[in-house]
Write a structure and sequence with these properties.
The chain is mostly helical and about 375 residues long. Helix content is about 50%, strand content about 10%. Helix 4 runs antiparallel to helix 6. The longest helix is centred in the middle third of the chain and has 28 residues.
Amino acid sequence: MNRSNKIDILVLAQKCVALIETTKMVATYKPATFMALLNVITQQIDKNGRPPKQVKVADLGREVLRLYWNQAVGFSGGAPLKQSAQRDVVAQIVQYRAANKLVLPRNTIEQARSQDPKGFRSLELQCIRTVANYPVRLLQKFGEGNNAREEHFLYGFSWDGNLSAKQVETSHLILKPGVGEGLLLLSPLLRVQLENQWMTYVSERNRLPRSGLNKYLFGFMRTEVASLAKYLVPLQKGKCFYCGGAITKANAHVDHVVPWSFSHDDGLDNLVAACAACNLNKSALLLGLAHLKNWGKRLTVGSPENLAIAGLAAKHKIHRDLDLTHRLARSAYSLAPPGTSVWNSRGSVATLNRQGSLKILTLQ
């Protein structure tokens, strides 16, 4: 972390958790907005792995819309679940999807934008302004009512008052020094807290048990990558990416090289086929130098390994974003605390060699 932007990560963690736990929920806007903020910061890290200093409110609103879009579908064959006592953004998305015959889970937000650009833009603007004028303004309040305490420890604002239509694409949140780096480091912890709070409210609001809600609310965030084993195993000539042992399409695991808990990156460049033993033993650790160097070949534009991945993605229409994967990798190794353990092989871990790791990733 840049010394000029140094922040006490423990203090930031305590404040974020307190912020989440002291919120009296009347809707899911706050966890959705906080989750969207984490996602946008992660998506917008630069080529050196550094987070942005500002977040456009339009990008934040669009990310909230994306989160809610996937939740505005029927639950267990019934109606979509309620997330507010009033007619909120989710209800508006439900109405929009019904009016445009986009009610199935497979009907994506990209499909809506292409099929009905004018109508979708109207929905998008409405969501952005709602997010900017309500949860973004209230997100940094601890507690509720007369006892609430506000502290702008995460961000400030580039605009005053309510956001007008003309300000939508030019207004932004100004992150406090070190907050971007801090939130990236804390994102695995904070995502769990936010998801739990979100599920608790939806469970109570709809009088449903929590079982099944995780997949309904957040399952879309993690692609079913296991199905990609049928492509990755032949690409790796039937060998585990880590130990070289024999694997098949039936028994192979698909592993996120940069752990999902940090990156939320399901792009093909971040996925490898591995044996069950290696995948389970590696868990959420970063790779040591040897495996990182081997994976780095896939990130090198024009290399045989990179061309093979590109061809696979094009042939089977598999999502990939090489630039994002590369930036996320640099961020993960740049921001990992001193003394972080990295994975070498089953039963073998080492201490992070930050300089050596970043040198490998810089060569790509």
